From TrEMBL:
Any one GO BP annotation for this protein: peptidoglycan metabolic process
Matches recorded under InterPro entries: Beta-lactam/transpept-like, Peptidase_S13
PANTHER family reported for this sequence: D-ALANYL-D-ALANINE CARBOXYPEPTIDASE, PENICILLIN-SENSITIVE CARBOXYPEPTIDASE A
Record's protein name: D-alanyl-D-alanine carboxypeptidase
Pfam families named in the record: Peptidase_S13
GO terms assigned for molecular function: serine-type carboxypeptidase activity
Length: 318
């Protein structure tokens, strides 16, 4: 009879040990799941969606906090890297639907924009045709796409000549509300180093080509039918990150892939990228990043621009 009494506590302790092990295992499993959710938030939307489906019922994926202040710090650290000591940076990152910017650095500095000047060329051409030959507007689709998505220089210069040259382009952009004193255009392609543009000007063009101006909101339906094709042609002519055109090989397997529509710019010592970035919290963000640094590796400049936009894709309202 004494034997069973001495064995009972042993059995009970084994049960306690087993329950403790199971509880610890469950806690660790929950902790690991929480960590996994944080990692998933940095994956492309498709991967994040499939991963969230495997979570237990009622468990929501965690999105890390990355506030505007964090974005300021992150971009400033890139711009102030010692390797860019002699670089001239101009940056504007602005949500389309909001009055303020998320980030600015030398927004009004005049820089060599390289092929980002093509944004002025195509916007001016589409505005010119909307005002003067709206019936021919749709026929510009392939030409504008060749200029913006594939950065075709001869076709960019041809498009500028078609509308009457730089003065005609300036008039068309002025009619859109663009400040024509903040840039200098000497060709349609951006090959000339005599071209100059500020990031604010480039973002201004992007905004004008995306959002209806106040006097157009109440315009007659027939007028809006002419305006909308211009904007669709412009937006759809841009290269898509990780998908096509001059951005086909950039931002692959990142949250930016398929969510950035932009125009690249490349000259010796010059890199630029301007366009639209889709952000879950801020919607469509218009941006322009231009850097001039003679003697610097083009690859290093491009990587820095891409890091800035990857950070921008993560920013959320906090």
């Amino acid at each position: 009879m004494g034997k069973p009494k001495t064995q009972a506590p042993i059995r009970l302790s084994r049960v306690v040990i087993t329950l403790t092990t199971l509880t610890t295992g469950i806690s660790l499993e929950n902790f690991n799941r929480a960590e996994a959710n944080v990692v998933q938030a940095f994956q492309p939307a498709e991967s994040a969606a499939s991963a969230s489906q495997s979570l237990p019922f009622g468990v929501q994926p965690i999105r890390p906090r990355f506030c505007q202040g964090d974005l300021d710090t992150a971009i400033t650290s890139i711009v102030n890297n010692p390797s860019f000591k002699t670089a001239k940076w101009g940056i504007v990152i602005k949500p389309i639907a909001e009055p303020g910017s998320l980030y600015q650095h030398n927004p009004n500095i005049n820089l060599i924009p390289a092929s980002n000047i093509k944004l002025l060329t195509t916007a001016a051409a589409l505005q010119f045709y909307t005002e003067n030959r709206p019936e021919k507007l749709a026929s510009l689709g392939n030409l504008v796409t060749a200029v913006n998505r594939y950065s075709n220089n001869p076709k960019a210069n041809l498009l500028l000549r078609r509308i009457g040259g730089e003065k005609a382009a300036m008039t068309a952009l002025a009619n859109m509300g663009v400040d024509t004193s903040a840039y200098r255009q000497v060709d349609g392609s951006g090959l000339s180093r005599n071209n100059r543009a500020t990031p604010s000007t480039l973002v201004g063009v992007l905004e004008k080509m995306y959002v209806r101006r106040p006097n157009e909101v109440n315009a007659e339906h027939s007028l809006l039918q002419q305006i909308q094709p211009k904007r669709d042609l412009f937006y759809n002519s841009l290269a898509i990150a990780g998908v096509n055109g001059t951005l086909r090989g950039r931002f692959l397997n990142t949250p930016v892939q398929g969510r950035l529509f932009g125009k690249t710019g490349t000259l010796r010592g010059v890199r630029s990228l301007s366009g639209y970035l889709q952000n879950p919290d801020y919607g469509t963000i218009a941006f322009s990043i231009v850097v001039n640094q003679p003697g610097q590796s083009g690859q290093r400049l491009t990587q820095a621009i891409d890091r800035i936009l990857l950070k921008t894709s993560q920013v959320n309202r906090c």
